[in-house]
C-alpha cells in the first residue's frame, strides 16, 4: 500500500531541492503547498508536522478515505478528485477551507461539511454511482453552507430534482449539466431564490428540450449572464422581461373581464351567458 507520509515527502524531489540547510522538521513546518497527485497513494498517514499547509493536491490517486487531516487548520484548498472515496468525512477541523474538489469519486451523499463556514466552492461532478443511484444531499450540510457557498458543481450525477438546494442563497455559479432535471417550474422556483446567480450550466438535462426553457430561466434569474455556455445580453433579457410583463398583463385583463361579467350577470350555476 502506498502511503502519503512524512518519509515520502522527505524523499520527494521537491523536498530535496528546496530543503536547503534546514532540518526536515523546519522544512515541513514552513511547507504551505504539497502536491502528490497521481502517485498511486491509497492512504494518508500522520502529516501533523506540516502545520502551515494551505494547499494540498491529492487528485488522481487511489485514496479510499479522507483521514488524518485534523492538523490542517490552515488548509484553504483541498484537491482529492478522481480517487476511490465513498464518504465525505473527517473535515470538521478545516475551518479555513475555501475550495473542496471531490469530483470523480464514489460519493453517494453530500454530508459531513457542517461547520465549514468559509467554504466557497464545492466540486462533486461525475461520481461513480451504481446503476439507478443518484447523488443525495444531507439537509444539515446544505443549511450549514447556505450563507457561504458560491460555486457548486454537481454535473453528471443522475440528479432529478434540486428542491433541497434552494437554501444556498449565496450561489453565484451552478453547474448541473448531464443530470435528469426535467421540471421547468422547479428550476424557475429554485433559481429565482438565488439572487446572486451569474452563471449556470444545465446542458444535457431533459428540461433543456422543453418549450421556452431558456427564456423562462432568463426572466426569473435577473443576474444571470451565462446560461449553458451562452452569454445573456441586457437587450435580450429586457425583451423577454417585456414579453413576460405583457403576457401577464393580458392574463390579468382577461381575468378582470370575466370577474366583472360575473358580478354584472350572476347566475346560480356560476356560468356567464352571453345574450343573443
From TrEMBL:
Keywords of the record: Leucine-rich repeat, Repeat
PROSITE patterns on file: LRR
SMART domains in the record: LRR_SD22
Regions that span the bilayer: none
Matches recorded under CDD domains: PPP1R42
Coiled coil: none
Top-level taxon in the UniProt lineage: Eukaryota
Cross-referenced InterPro entries: Leu-rich_rpt (IPR001611), LRR_dom_sf (IPR032675), SDS22/Internalin_LRR (IPR050836)
Name of the protein: Protein phosphatase 1 regulatory subunit 42
Amino acid at each position: 500500500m502506498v502511503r502519503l507520509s512524512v518519509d515520502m515527502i522527505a524523499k520527494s524531489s521537491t523536498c530535496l531541492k528546496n530543503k536547503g540547510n534546514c532540518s526536515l522538521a523546519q522544512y515541513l513546518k514552513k511547507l504551505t503547498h504539497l502536491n502528490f497527485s497521481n502517485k498511486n497513494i491509497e492512504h494518508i498517514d500522520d502529516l501533523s508536522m506540516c502545520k502551515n499547509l494551505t494547499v494540498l493536491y491529492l487528485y488522481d490517486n487511489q485514496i479510499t478515505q479522507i483521514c488524518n487531516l485534523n492538523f490542517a487548520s490552515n488548509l484553504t484548498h483541498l484537491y482529492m478528485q478522481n480517487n476511490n472515496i465513498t464518504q465525505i468525512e473527517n473535515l470538521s477541523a478545516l475551518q479555513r477551507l475555501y475550495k473542496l474538489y471531490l469530483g470523480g469519486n464514489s460519493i453517494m451523499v453530500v454530508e459531513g461539511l457542517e461547520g465549514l463556514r468559509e467554504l466557497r466552492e464545492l466540486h462533486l461532478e461525475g461520481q461513480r454511482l451504481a446503476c439507478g443511484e443518484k447523488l443525495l444531499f444531507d439537509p444539515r450540510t446544505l443549511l450549514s453552507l447556505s450563507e457561504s457557498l458560491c460555486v457548486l458543481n454537481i454535473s453528471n450525477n443522475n440528479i432529478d430534482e434540486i428542491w433541497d438546494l434552494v437554501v444556498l442563497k449565496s450561489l453565484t455559479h451552478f453547474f448541473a449539466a448531464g443530470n435528469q432535471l426535467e421540471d421547468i417550474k422547479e428550476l424557475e422556483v429554485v433559481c429565482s431564490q438565488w439572487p446572486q446567480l451569474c452563471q449556470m450550466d444545465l446542458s444535457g438535462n431533459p428540461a433543456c428540450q422543453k418549450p421556452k426553457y431558456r427564456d423562462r430561466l432568463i426572466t426569473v434569474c435577473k443576474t444571470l449572464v451565462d446560461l449553458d455556455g451562452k452569454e445573456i445580453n441586457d437587450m435580450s433579457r429586457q425583451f423577454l422581461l417585456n414579453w413576460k410583463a405583457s403576457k401577464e398583463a393580458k392574463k390579468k385583463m382577461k381575468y378582470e373581464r370575466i370577474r366583472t361579467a360575473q358580478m354584472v350577470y350572476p347566475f346560480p350555476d356560476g356560468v356567464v351567458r352571453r345574450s343573443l
